[in-house]
Amino acid sequence: MSNSSWRFSKRALAMKSSIIRESLKLTAKPGVLSFGGGMPAPELFPVEELIEACRKVLTERPDEALQYGTTEGYTPLREAIAERMNKIGVPCTADKILITGGSQQGLHLLGSAFIDEGDYVVTARPTYLGAIQAFNAFGPKYATLPSDDDGMVVEGLEEILVEKSPKLIYLVPTFQNPDGRTIPVPRRKEILKLAKKYNTPVVEDDPYSELSFEGKVPEHMFSLAPENVIMLGTFSKLLAPGLRIAWLIAPNNECFDRCVKMKQGADLHTNTFAQHVVYEFMKTGALDGHVEKVRKLYARRRDVMVAAMRKYFPEGVTFTEPTGGLFLWVSLPEKINATELMPKAVEKLVAYIPGMAFYPDGGGDNSMRLNFSKANEEEIEIGMKRLGELFQEALNS
Ligand SMILES: Cc1ncc(COP(=O)(O)O)c(C=O)c1O
After folding, report:
1. Tally of CB atoms within 10 A around 103
2. d(CA 397, ligand 1 centre) in Å
3. Range of 387's domain?
């Protein structure tokens, strides 16, 4: 509802504030240990290397780095990303890479390029909340499929494709935000076979596959069907989210051109200076070593969190144990509603994101997402103890 006399668009009036942003406001209370956000560990930001990259960019090519740029992005950066993608088995060329202001912008561009009001989008449930928000601006309906230990199930997908003719199948197939689950290759192939049969593009949103704690990850969906997958990658979790540098890999020229046109209207191009800085950083060869440090720290924090959960959580509470990424997923006994429990959690100085936020069409009331990348080991131990007490009290009441 509008409370001014200005006639905002129906679209604007329909948009709700993100529950994550709202929850984060609650957790601003001093002393609250928050496992709610999805923030990287700031102590790992490669500050000195970035200072050096900024210095080089500003002394060697200020005219270019501070100037307007092309909508597609800074060519050397696109080439460096293509090279890196090929190294991890994603076959692409620089001319199909569009630099975006975060993958969040990639999602928005895809929403604007594909979704008319009332069109269906397929997602897992749960799925990434930010994608729901980005798509919601275009008024879609959702056809969701549940997840098991191997991510979104395939049963029911063909019926949806036949009956609802969705415009997109949106997936975070590797270390999914919010539940940390990964779809194995045989299931990826089943999904891709159906997507191809019904001529429906798959969006592979992939911020986390390089953050694998055990080395190998399943082949990317883009690699399995490069003609039918639109891939999103980002430096947010590999380097620093404040840079807002990410990329979209289009499977064909038409998809690329349509996204470029949408982006022109949105912001002309991504921040030129930040693109140059990221390129300069990549050129030093420091990214691999940096990503290795990130992996090691997050693996350790995941271990500490899982051990503390085993120690403190009451019987009946289950959780995923992801082998990469930033998040895990907690399922509570049916009688506990994680959204209603949130104020009590904040009283106990601990916070999380209630699971229902990640369900585009309702559900997930007895679940929550926890982040293990930001808090240190001591905070994780204390936080899980507080959560364990909270769950026990809820079970007793
Ligand atoms: C699955 C997924 N997609 C997209 C994003 C947005 O990333 P970016 O910072 O590149 O906009 C996130 C951020 O957490 C994410 O988890």
Report:
1. 27
2. 37
3. 11-45+288-396
